[in-house]
Design goal:
The protein is 43% helix and 12% strand. It is α/β, with parallel strands linked by helices and 393 residues long. It has a 7-stranded mixed β-sheet, sandwiched between helices. The chain has a 3-stranded antiparallel β-sheet with strand order 9-10-12. The protein has a two-stranded parallel ribbon with strand order 1-11. The longest helix is centred in the N-terminal third of the chain and has 21 residues. It is globular, with a radius of gyration of 22 Å. The chain starts with a strand and ends with a helix. The structure holds pyridoxal-5'-phosphate (PLP).
């Protein structure tokens, strides 16, 4: 199987698996226990916290371990909103683009159901939030903002379907000028493009281990020391009053190793991923009526999303299944929504017609992807689309 679905998840790096295995055999103590085993687990977790904090230019105490990107996003958005409601008896107004991952849209929709006001920020044809769009929506919401607590703006750094990067630093500065708080979902960009939380100017930022060859089921939320949130898991051993539950040293150690590997090789990997992207684009360019959705500039190097101008006569689901039968794993949007025949909400928000949004194919590479796999993927798509066109009614 040629695996080009690395935005959905990545394979565990050997070094990560080895360190996790070692930990599993060495100790199983609870990091909250006072005996030596517990203390060792605590030290291991705190060491990992320091490495992950420093990868973001943050302080260790600003890192909360979670079960992954979904929980980090929920903790940031609901945690902030509930804290405001409890302290000031008012929900913050929430702003976000419609192109966010469901793990951001979901908590915002939930808060809307229980009384918060949610505004959606427009995006351009590339799926990018611009300063103009942000300023316009803040202006539109001026009435709601005038009697509310500081609003929350959540904008992803890189989109999981298209790879489009948002100008977070510029947008965050505008939000702060308007008295707001910024959360950024950096699940796709972390480890692929260099940044620090200070450069971005964000107050909260979500990351996840399994997108960078770490284990599934662990992630982190960066929480600026000034920001208070209400835990979403109460009880158990609370991490500085932010999240209850017994931490998994094994997963956290795996996360730490994945982070070290990603950071160490970032420049080289980025060069390699760009080479793979150019090779893929070169090959795909020979397919008739192919439309490249991912923007040319200002996008992650490892995601290429394409569709077809004759999409109305192609079957999107069958494209992905056809590729699977060719032994190539790709996706037609966020893995979390696949199985649904709805056109991708991201591509729809970018203004693509529903047929084109339904016929999208997302290729996502990793540092383990080989040139020959790219060539096979191009051959595969050429064949699948060719057959579909040949036999269409
Ligand atoms: N945010 C983005 C942009 C993602 O791509 C994903 C995963 O697909 C998530 C959040 C959810 O992360 P996790 O799978 O770690 O819960």
């Amino acid at each position: 199987m040629i695996y080009l679905d690395n935005s959905a998840t990545t394979k565990l790096a050997d070094e990560v698996a080895a360190r996790m295995e070692l930990w599993r055999h060495e100790s199983f103590a609870n990091a909250s226990s006072v005996h030596r085993g517990g203390q060792r687990a605590r030290v291991t977790i705190e060491d990992a916290r320091t490495v992950i904090a420093s990868s973001l230019g943050a302080e260790p105490k600003e890192i909360v371990f979670t079960s992954g990107g979904t929980e980090s996003n929920n903790l940031a958005i609901k945690g902030y909103a509930f804290k405001q409601k409890i302290q000031h008896d008012a929900w913050p107004v929430i702003f976000l683009p419609r192109t966010e991952h469901h793990a951001v849209l979901g908590p915002a929709e939930f808060l809307e159901q229980i009384g918060a006001r949610v505004y959606y920020i427009d995006v351009d044809r590339d799926g990018r939030v611009t300063a103009e769009f942000l300023v316009a929506i803040l202006k539109e919401a001026a009435h709601d903002l005038s009697f509310s607590v500081p609003p929350l703006v959540s904008i992803m750094q890189a989109n999981n379907e298209t790879g489009t990067l948002n100008p977070i630093a510029e947008l965050a500065a505008l939000v702060h000028d308007a008295g707001g708080v910024v959360h950024c979902d950096a699940v796709q960009s972390y480890g692929k493009v260099p940044f620090s939380v200070e450069e971005l100017g964000v107050d909260m930022l979500s990351i996840s281990a399994h997108k960078i060859h770490g284990p599934k089921g662990v992630g982190a939320l960066y929480l600026n020391r000034e920001i208070e949130i209400e835990p979403q898991l109460h009880g158990g051993s609370l991490d500085r009053n932010r999240r209850g539950g017994t931490e998994s040293p094994e997963l956290i150690v795996g996360f730490e190793v994945a982070v070290r590997l990603a950071l160490r090789g970032m420049e080289e990997n980025s060069r390699r991923l760009t080479e793979l992207r150019d090779r893929l684009l070169g090959g795909l360019g020979t397919i008739d009526q192919l439309v490249v959705v991912t923007p040319n500039v200002g996008a992650l190097p490892n995601i290429i999303n394409v569709t077809f101008s004759d999409a109305a006569e192609l079957d999107g689901e069958a494209l992905i299944v056809g590729m699977d039968l060719e032994g190539i794993a790709v996706s037609n949007g966020s893995a979390c929504t696949s199985g649904s025949i709805q056109p991708s909400h991201v591509l729809s928000a970018m203004g693509l017609p529903p047929e084109q949004a339904k016929a999208a194919v997302r290729f996502s590479t990793s540092r383990f992807t080989e040139d020959t796999e790219i060539d096979r993927a191009v051959e595969g798509l050429t064949k699948v689309v060719g057959q579909m066109r040949k036999y269409r009614p």
